[in-house]
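Model the whole thing, not chain by chain.
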Amino acid sequence: MKWLYLFILFTSISISIQGQKYAERNGEVHFYSKAPVEDIEAHSEKGQSIVDIGSNRIAFEVPIRSFQFEKDLMQEHFNENYMESDKYPKASFSGSFSGFDINASGKQNVTASGEIYIHGVKEKWNAEGVMYVKNGKIHLETTFFVPLETFDIEKPKVLFYNIADKIEVNLNFIYDEM
Amino acid sequence: MMKCKFYIFLTIITFFSLCRVNAQDDLLSELSEDDEIYPVKSTFKGTRLINGHTIETRGAGNLDFLIMHRFGRLNSGIDEFFGLDQAVIRLALDYGITDDLSIGIGRSSSPKYLDGYIKYSFLKQTPGKIPVSATIISSAALDINIREEQPPAEDRLSYATGILIARKFNSAFSFQIAPYWLHRNVVEYNEENEAFALNLATRVKITKRMAITAEYFVRLNDSAFPENTNNAFGVGWELETGGHVFQLIFTNNLGMVENTIIPGTVNDFFSGDIHFGFNISRAFNLKRNKDEKSW
């Protein structure tokens, strides 16, 4: 009897250490470049993310090729010249977050810190966002700014496009229990 | 005995829980398990490489205005200002009906030709799945040179159909091979109506926006073609700036549609009969991707 008791105890400990994972497979990722001549925006619905409530860890990635632009030519240039999606097919983030309690109601301000990977460059990264639970699903909304220079993303010199120095990125994820 | 079993259990459970702690360090690798594979894009920059077509089609709703310009022979001497006195031009419009289906019309000066084509991309190179991209093109050309006795239109028509097969080996190197079948409604007595040729084309990127290109049409049944004509050859330098693609080219022919390029090359590149020329294309977006903008 004693070993059965201990078995249950350790299993529950191991589950609580492992935590509970929630995943999003079709997350919305938007980005905006606001510049005097032209606002450029693109979106993807191929953002993927996992949050681990037990260990407060989060990972996120999006295929560069999945971004849709208003103009085909922009999309081609984005892939070919700026993001070099042949070489660097994905952007990702992995790290930990704090400030979220799954049992609490209402919107909760959270912060995340970890490493972001864009265009082959890895950087320490902090971001703020909002998380809340609705209908058993975890929602995450966050906005952050990506400076092009940090990630060796060339700024076009020609007049045709005018791109902001910092690109605004919005994530809108809804996680289901895994 | 009981105690022994208990310790074994303890060890196993601890081991498993540790494993799980380790596993969560790599949430990212869990995400990468089912990655979508995207087909290869931009095998070539333009829908034309030098004179001939590439596998590329314009996206849905894109209108390309294309100016193809050829000067005279470089070795024609100072009297002809090394060919710059003479000019042949083809103005054309290409339109993408869908992402894979394009149509186009064009008009060439001297010799005067009206031409039209339809082009469909039916295979897309996809890593790990499909090794090459392929496009079929079919074009028709009408000779509209003014003659005293103008033959009926059907006698002045010729057709060309090609299967274009290309592979982007890496981000810098692309290669295309394309068998062409030409049908000319009326030919000279010593020629044949059906003619066949093989197009070999390549593009090597030297910087993000610059590339060196080369194109060769090998004629397969020489007897079908006019006497004293050669295989068409050209080399080019391709430059991209925003919505424009500039192609500066050196070629041994003045043809700009299949039925003037392949049977109509009278010059020999390596004897210096080289025409300098350029292609400029400007893309216009007629249909914005509005459905995508529901967000």
